[in-house]
Amino acid sequence: MQRSVPASAEMREYFGFTRMAHPDDVRAWFEGLWQRFPFAPSAVQYFRTLRLEIATLDEPMGGGYWFADRKLVMVRGIQDEAAVHELSHAWWEQHRSVHRDSLMHVLERLGQVPVPHYDRISELARVYCNGIPTQKDESSPTGYWRGMLAEGNDHETFAGFCSGVMGKAHDLPPELRSFYKGLLRGA
Residue range 91-114: average pLDDT? Predict the structure, then answer.
């Protein structure tokens, strides 16, 4: 059982937890994550300036949020994929104004023509471009989730590709890999 403290306002509102992991234990867990995954030193340096919260260190629950205005990365549990995803959002926030349109153009190209030897990225790009017809979305004109390209969602595109390959730059095709320079070693 890990130490806990009263939950932050965000943790209570978004996840419904009344307690969360102790900040020192959360920092230690993230330091371990940064060693286990190929984050670039510049990214780790930036991540260390952020407010980091985890609801529980006892379970590998997924789910999380990036709050840019508060510089807060918040995850429910210790699922590596969720943490990689939310940290990617935090990194992208600093770079998106310059690279957003280029990323979405690369997504569109990748969604049209699968990239040999990059099956995971090809699959993600197909879904990000075409949506998921079986995933109902009442607010969509199609009645289903149309995908990130239709929504213009560069944030989820960037974070989704990164967590989709668990931060391994060599699993990103070269035209996509360049967007992760400074975030991932080998980009």
Answer: 96
The answer to whether 164 and 120 have CB atoms below 8 angstroms apart is: yes
Q: Is residue 59 predicted with pLDDT exceeding 80?
A: yes
On the CB side of 153, how many CA atoms lie within 13 Å of its CA?
17
Dist CA 96 CA 54 (whole Å): 26
Q: Is the predicted pLDDT of residue 122 greater than 90, yes or no?
A: yes
Domain ranges of the chain: 4-180
In the 3-class helix/strand/coil scheme, how is 87-148 assigned residue by residue?
Answer: HHHHHHHHHHHHHHHHHHHHHHHHHHCCCCCCHHHHHHHHHHHHCEEEEECCCCCCCEECCH
